UniProtKB/TrEMBL annotation:
Transmembrane segments annotated in the record for this chain: 609-627
Name under which the protein is recorded: Uncharacterized protein
Entry's family note: Belongs to the GDA1/CD39 NTPase family.
Annotated ATP binding sites: 312-316
Sorted UniProt keywords: ATP-binding, Hydrolase, Membrane, Nucleotide-binding, Transmembrane, Transmembrane helix
Region (Disordered), start-end ranges: 25-47
Residue numbers annotated as active site: 273 (proton acceptor)
Keyword Flavoprotein: no
UniProt GO MF annotations: ATP binding; nucleoside diphosphate phosphatase activity
Species name: Grammatophora oceanica
Gene Ontology cellular component annotations, sorted alphabetically: membrane
Length: 636
């Protein structure tokens, strides 16, 4: 399955143009094409020869300061853009090649899961699709059927003491790349739906392989598609187009035999993502359920844990504030009909790891001339010594130093491809101190001036209010960090529970490595294309936790992706929330229970009845409130 973004015809025209500009074919990038792959020495000589030709090209035309020949600079800019686009095509070809290998492994995985899915006969199921910025993950969950058998269980359900708990196994999860937001570039509605159908077909095949033994019950199992940071970065119209196409595709019962409604597919807000992350962590650690029983507000829990999530496009923080002194960004979480939690939660869009790297590239090349960007190269202290990186960004800066999508290029640059540049580190090693300074500048703490005034210095970064981090106490334990925080810990070989001083020391060591050394150090823990970025990843994680959120050197954070055998993340908390909004059914002891639902939610089985009128009314009120709250919090 491939999703080519660059047409072959355009590629052929780029090659011709490059030959006209520098008198020879363009240099090979570090990515191989076809069956040809040059050695590292050959590639370096070729790149040096190419840049020498460009330098002579500039000198022969009176250098980049000669404004009487603006078309020559434009040609150089155009050339850089074409090299970038060809590299993108080469990367896409490599991705397609990897996809074919992955497809073979995927077929083997499907056969294995089909033969032994490990599904219990008596359980009900739900499916959560996490559509993130870099990829999409589908997880199958199981839980006890939402059926009450006697008056005691009815009383427990009404009082909030009876909840449904989702369970899953790692083998019930499948994933794919790229992210769903990629499809926003497809403008034709039919083509968009076809692409999305093809995109999700493998995940649907996987889900059906896991649940094939319950074919007659599939229509009663809800499937939720929740898109996060990557989709939040799109324009409103692009978000709507993609989500509407997803809804159209999943509304087809032939494609999706599971229970699906339009509202099951939506872009969740960053704060929802933060709260669900907190709920997932505390559910796995056993601190959520018992304290949620009853009615009212949770005030004195046994112990809770904060949650820190660093994704590709956004980052989230959420925690229980024991004094309940939350002046802003307070959100209420209620599981089923139990008590509700008052939580501090905030999400920072464009502060995820990948988004931060893009903003760093834009910051480094801001105000640089064509000569500096495309010939001399721009220094990046976050790269390992000797590394060179070709980058492209669509981000520009306002005169006040804030990012913008509106182009504000220097007067001597005519091309819209101002975002192309060569970043490099001419030194022997990277520099943690300089890299951390740049990483901290990306947090925009200079925007805190009004927040510091209005909230008496209770602010994190980017002008956002945050109460002081709760001290470790009986009510509040330490913070758990996952996603890219975990990947940084793993790269640095830190113990899961580490202090901020430990993180800084490890990052300093990692940044003080040359290119070959950092590759040897990373081993198989880091994908090849990410190795040169790991000094920045470590510096950014440390800057965000300390300069951003306010952790002290002596504060500890536990970074992990697995807790008590379960994958932690917002998707687990979201599934727990969703299944506890599903209606209960009632059957007297000994009655036969049928779990099959049709798409209009009719409940099968002659001996299955709904709650009494009073309980039905209560359930309806709770359900309406939950749906309305979700709609108010979601983007689509």
């Amino acid at each position: 399955m491939t999703f080519s973004r660059i047409p072959v015809e355009a590629h052929e025209s780029w090659v011709g143009h490059l030959k006209r500009v520098v008198g020879e074919e363009e240099p090979m990038s570090s990515y191989s094409t076809g069956n040809t792959r040059r050695s590292k020495g050959e590639e370096q000589n070729r790149q040096e020869h190419y840049h020498d030709r460009i330098n002579r090209y500039l000198k022969s035309h009176h250098s980049h300061h000669h404004v009487d020949e603006p078309t020559e600079l434009a040609a150089l800019e155009q050339h850089a853009q074409e090299v970038y686009l060809e590299r993108e095509q080469t990367m896409q070809a490599q991705h397609d090649k990897k996809s074919k290998k992955h497809a073979k492994k995927h077929e083997k995985k499907l056969r294995a899961i089909y033969q032994d899915p490990g599904i219990h006969k008596s359980t009900a199921h739900g499916i959560m699709v996490d559509a993130g910025s870099t990829g999409t993950r589908l997880s199958v969950y199981e839980f006890e059927p939402r059926v009450l058998h006697n008056e005691r269980e009815v009383e427990e359900a009404v009082s909030g003491r009876k909840l449904s708990y989702p369970g899953t196994e790692s083998r019930w999860t499948d994933r794919l790349r790229p992210g769903l937001a990629t499809f926003a570039t497809i403008e034709d509605e039919t083509e968009l739906e076809d692409a999305i159908r093809e995109y999700f077909s493998g995940l649907m095949e996987f889900a059906l392989s896991v649940l094939h033994s319950k074919e007659s019950d599939l229509a009663s199992y809800p499937i939720y598609i929740r898109a996060t940071g990557g989709m939040r970065t799109l324009t409103r119209s692009d978000r709507a187009r993609v989500i509407n196409s997803v809804r159209t595709v999943f509304s087809n019962e032939t494609f999706c035999p599971f229970q699906f409604e339009d509202e099951y597919a939506r872009v969740i807000s960053g704060e929802e993502e933060a709260i669900f992350g907190w709920a997932g962590v505390n559910f796995v650690l056993g601190t959520l359920i018992e304290d949620s029983e009853g009615a009212g507000t949770v005030l004195n829990p046994e112990q809770t844990y904060g949650a820190l999530d660093l994704g590709g496009a956004s980052t989230q923080i959420s925690f229980f504030e024991p004094t309940q002194d939350i002046m802003s960004n307070l959100f209420k979480l209620q599981i089923g009909q139990g008590k509700h939690w008052n939580l501090y939660a905030h999400s920072f869009l464009h502060y995820g790891m990948n988004a931060a790297k893009d903003r760093l590239n834009a910051l480094l090349i801001n105000g640089k001339s064509t000569q500096e960007r495309l010939v001399d190269g721009v220094h990046n202290p976050c790269l390992p010594g000797g590394a060179t990186l070709d980058v492209h960004t669509e981000i520009h800066f306002t005169p006040l130093g804030m990012e913008t999508w509106n182009a504000t290029v220097p007067s001597d640059v005519e091309s819209v491809s101002y975002g192309n540049a060569i970043l490099k580190n001419e030194g022997a090693v990277g520099n943690f101190e300089e890299c951390a300074r740049l990483a901290t500048s990306l947090l925009h703490k200079e925007q805190n001036s009004w927040c510091d005034f209005s909230h008496r210095d209770d602010c994190s970064f980017a002008g956002v209010y945050q109460p002081e981090l709760p001290a470790r106490s009986q009510e509040v334990g330490e913070f758990l960090a996952f996603s890219n925080f975990y990947h940084v810990w793993d790269f640095l070989e830190l113990p899961p529970r580490s202090s901020m001083a430990d993180l800084k020391n490890a990052a300093e060591i990692a940044c003080a490595l040359g290119r070959d050394e950092v590759r040897a150090f990373a081993g198989d823990r880091v994908e090849e294309e990410l190795v040169d970025h790991m000094c920045f990843h470590a510096s950014y994680a440390w800057s965000m936790l300390t300069a951003g959120y306010g952790f002290k050197d002596t504060d500890y954070v536990t970074a992990t992706n697995i807790v008590k055998g379960k994958k932690v993340g917002w998707h687990l908390g979201a599934m727990m929330y969703e299944i506890n909004t599903l209606p209960w059914t009632y059957a007297s002891d000994g009655a036969h229970i049928s779990h099959a639902h049709s798409r209009d939610h009719a409940i099968g089985g002659p001996n299955t009845i709904y709650f009494s009128a009073i309980l039905a009314a209560i359930g309806a009120i709770v359900s309406i409130f939950a749906v309305r709250s979700r709609r108010q919090r979601s983007l689509y």
